[in-house]
Amino acid sequence: MGACPEIRNVRIGLLHLFICHTSASLTINENADPDVLQDLGMAFDRLAPEAWAWVHTCEGPDDMPAHVKTSLTDTSLSIPIRDGGLCTGTWQGIYLCEHRDRAGSRRLILTVQGESI
Amino acid sequence: MGACPEIRNVRIGLLHLFICHTSASLTINENADPDVLQDLGMAFDRLAPEAWAWVHTCEGPDDMPAHVKTSLTDTSLSIPIRDGGLCTGTWQGIYLCEHRDRAGSRRLILTVQGESI
Amino acid sequence: MGACPEIRNVRIGLLHLFICHTSASLTINENADPDVLQDLGMAFDRLAPEAWAWVHTCEGPDDMPAHVKTSLTDTSLSIPIRDGGLCTGTWQGIYLCEHRDRAGSRRLILTVQGESI
Prior knowledge:
The structure is a homotrimer.
Chain A: E1 10-19, E2 24-30, H1 34-47, H2 63-72, E3 76-82, E4 85-86, E5 92-98, E6 108-116
Antiparallel strand pairs in A: 1-3, 1-6, 2-5, 3-4
């Protein structure tokens, strides 16, 4: 992960990712076939449809669905580090899930804990 | 967070919250507008309705929905600490989600890890 | 936890469990009554049914539902340790959720952090 070169100095530890928002979230899933991304989007649209009778709609019909999808997935992830690399499985990729139709940039905080190489 | 003054002594680290129950859970979501809480409750009632043909109903119709809602949200949260404060975003609040209609008090375990100021 | 004797040497800390797959996941839930497991399976089958119009079906009809169920639950868990034991509540058990109808063995990575006894 080029965005976090500190990982390369860790023999054993954890990388913690935290997204500072309530309408975007994180998850780990298959990232080889782009169809998975499309299907995940379809599934979460069905699990939290815009058509439900939401009360909180001040930012539009995608506002509350975004909050529900955030709680259904993760605001933070924790991934093992070993010998300077992430121990993710072959098919695992880190998704930043943008749940709003229009959104600005998103802020993440990365924390590395562990023993140095 | 007045309940955990140890945070104030941490320069950089993580606060871990763990709820010791299977019918109440934790999540991070928007906490400015109380309508969000109401809508989240409505959404999770639709995602795990009491009307489904549950087998495990020994503690009432809200028993299994509470377990499902617990697995859909989080039993633990991990939040970055920097310079003695939590690094939550502007709109992020920590929810304790009570999924039972009637429940006693709930027990949480907080663990702080990091470097001292 | 016989599988991780290192826990016994930790006075205070965290056990991190990470599953290296995208069609199996982890969750903490009630593990006393086997009906809960059956009901959880029924609920997640309704939340991500094989009958939906999935695009990514290369490994069969249980392929995408498995990915969705993985994101709805957890790829990692973090559990407090105190005085050499896990601080789980009375009813809390750790589930490895196998979302595929047929699957090989699954790989987990356990990381223990904390202060020694």
